[in-house]
Amino acid sequence: TFNLSRTLDDLDDHTDPFHIPFTLDQAIRLIQRNERGRAGIQKAMMIANWRREAERREKRLTEGVDFADLEDDSEELLAAQRAAVSKIAASWKRKAAIRCVQRMKQEEYIFLGMLPPVEKPPVDQIALAEEIRVQRRQSQIEASSDYDKALDDELAWSRKIKGPDLHKEMLDERREWILEVRQQTGAFPADLEAFYTRFDQPEETVEGEGDGGKQSKDGKKASDKK
After folding, report:
1. Can you count the helices (H) and strands (E) in the chain?
2. Of 44, 156, 182, 195, which sits 20 to 30 A from 68 (CA to CA)?
3. Alpha carbon 7 to its chain's center
4. What is the CA radius of gyration of the chain?
5. Which residue has the higher pLDDT, 40 or 167?
6. What is the four-CA torsion angle of 128, 130, 134, 137, rounded to 10 degrees?
7. Would you place residue 1 in the very low, low, confident or very high pLDDT band (cuts 50, 70, 90)?
């Protein structure tokens, strides 16, 4: 079973998250201050709205607009809009209900055998398979082109970011090999291609090891027979 450690971690916060570091008086003062701020903001917004409305009325008075007629027209327009919205909503609900009832009626008639079942149009499976094959081929071509482009971008990024470091590491590796050869033989290597074949085992050594293994096996068999 997996058990949690009961030791306290120094990185954990062991304070009570529900503890409020205020006394009752401090909390009351804080609430009162926030409430006064909220009331002040609300009062300022109301005054701003009043001033805006007063400026609008003053502007209309200068233009010679009658407020009584304007209010009556706005109320009539609002009532007409409400009536239009109600009619549109009722019409859409009625059409949706009629369509639902017709669909249910048709399904019931088909279930009772009073109507023939709705025949689905025949599907040409060969044409459908060919269309799917063309779509898959197109998807493969697009994916292949995206993959090649991503490889080119990755190669360009590697050459730009890691190219100098890799070039330096390869040069250092070859210099170290040249110095080792010079320390062992007293001269620089004549064939630099030996750097790439220095870990390859000669074929004669491998064949000799194979013959020695066979001879040792034959000797072991002969000793077992004796």
Report:
1. 5, 0
2. 44
3. 38
4. 46
5. 40
6. 110
7. very low
Could you give the CA distance from residue 147 to residue 110 in angstroms, rounded to a whole number? 53
CA–CA gap between residue 154 and residue 162 (Å, rounded): 11
Residue 182 CA to residue 193 CA, distance in Å, equals: 15
First-residue to last-residue Cα distance in the chain: 61
Q: Is the pLDDT of residue 49 over 70?
A: yes
Alpha carbon of 158 to those of 146, 161, 170: distances in Å?
Answer: 18, 5, 15
Non-local CB neighbours of 177 within 8 Å, separated by 6+ positions? 189, 195, 198
Angstrom distance (rounded) from CA 164 to CA 158: 10
d(CA 224, CA 218): 10
Residue 101 confidence (pLDDT):
94
